[in-house]
Design a protein that fits this description.
CATH topology of the largest domain: Tumour Suppressor Smad4
Strand order of the largest sheet: 6-5-16-13-8-9
Helix content: 10-25%
CATH superfamily of the largest domain: Probable inorganic polyphosphate/atp-NAD kinase, domain 2
Low-confidence stretches: none
CATH class of the largest domain: Mainly Beta
CATH architecture of the largest domain: Sandwich
Largest sheet: 6 strands, antiparallel
Radius of gyration: 19 Å
Number of strands: 17
């Protein structure tokens, strides 16, 4: 197993130090010949690694050198190959975001969430359309997000959205500081839902759309759906699977 590892690390000094030690101990076959990618950093670096290795069909095992590390394992050095061999896989699919903006049309993928955010002091006004049917004619808010199960414990959770089990086949739609309708808390959607947001009064109330770390400003329309053609496998230590972490998070206070 150690002959098939490729290590990547964030710029944090601790992660860079661990990178040097692990390469010295286990070697590094490079990205082309790797059977497992080992990512050293925080959750943000894991997202970056997921995007960097899209389409490679290589599982990614993360070790935490960040502040939260929900998507990461604890750091292992001596027994790393054994931990990887015993790890439990979690297969995740990203969201596909399609945008129409002043700059034209665009696409981006998000493993955590797609979020729409107001750009100025003016609240955003949005129309929500699901599978071709208008479900909410006007939402006045700071923004809204659509989260995958893997991302439901990130921005979605901090916005009081629901935590989703990794195999739930659901998406979470969570408003950000909704003003009207004031009591609307969001929705749970089937994973194959086709979601469209129309931005109302875009000149007066400009909105940006963000897919993980890709931002598109001054959007007029945003379409979101799960992209089942893309699958990435993440590896988690035995007994500490992503499902288990999601359960633990729901009983944490």
């Amino acid at each position: 197993m150690s002959e098939n590892l490729h290590f990547v690390a964030s710029e944090a000094p601790e992660a860079q130090g661990a990178l040097a030690r692990l390469r010295e101990r286990f070697g590094d076959v490079g990205p082309r010949d790797a059977s497992v990618i080992v990512a050293l950093g925080g959750d943000g670096f894991m997202l970056l690694t997921l995007h960097n290795f899209l389409g490679r069909n290589v599982p990614i095992y993360g070790m935490n050198f960040g502040s939260v590390g929900f998507l990461m394992n604890e750091f292992h050095e001596r027994d790393l190959p054994q931990c990887i061999k015993a790890a439990e896989p979690a297969r995740v699919h990203p969201l596909l975001m399609k945008t129409e903006s002043l700059a034209g049309e665009g696409k981006a993928l998000a493993f955590n969430e797609v979020s729409l955010l107001r750009e100025t002091r003016q609240a955003a006004k949005l129309r929500i359309i699901l599978d071709g049917k208008v479900r909410l004619d006007e939402l006045i808010c700071d923004g809204i997000l659509v989260s995958t199960p893997a991302g439901s414990t990130a921005y979605n959770l901090s916005s009081h959205g629901p935590i989703l089990p990794i195999d739930s086949a659901l998406l979470a739609m969570t408003p950000l500081s909704a003003f009207r309708p004031r009591r609307w808390r969001g929705a749970l959607l089937p994973h194959d839902a086709k979601i469209r947001f129309d931005i109302l009064e875009p000149e007066r109330r400009p909105v940006s759309a963000v897919a993980d770390n890709i931002e598109v400003r001054d959007v007029r329309r945003v379409d979101v759906e799960e992209d089942r053609s893309v699958t990435t496998t993440m590896l988690f230590d035995a007994g500490h699977s992503l499902d288990e972490r999601i359960l633990q998070e729901q009983f944490f206070y």
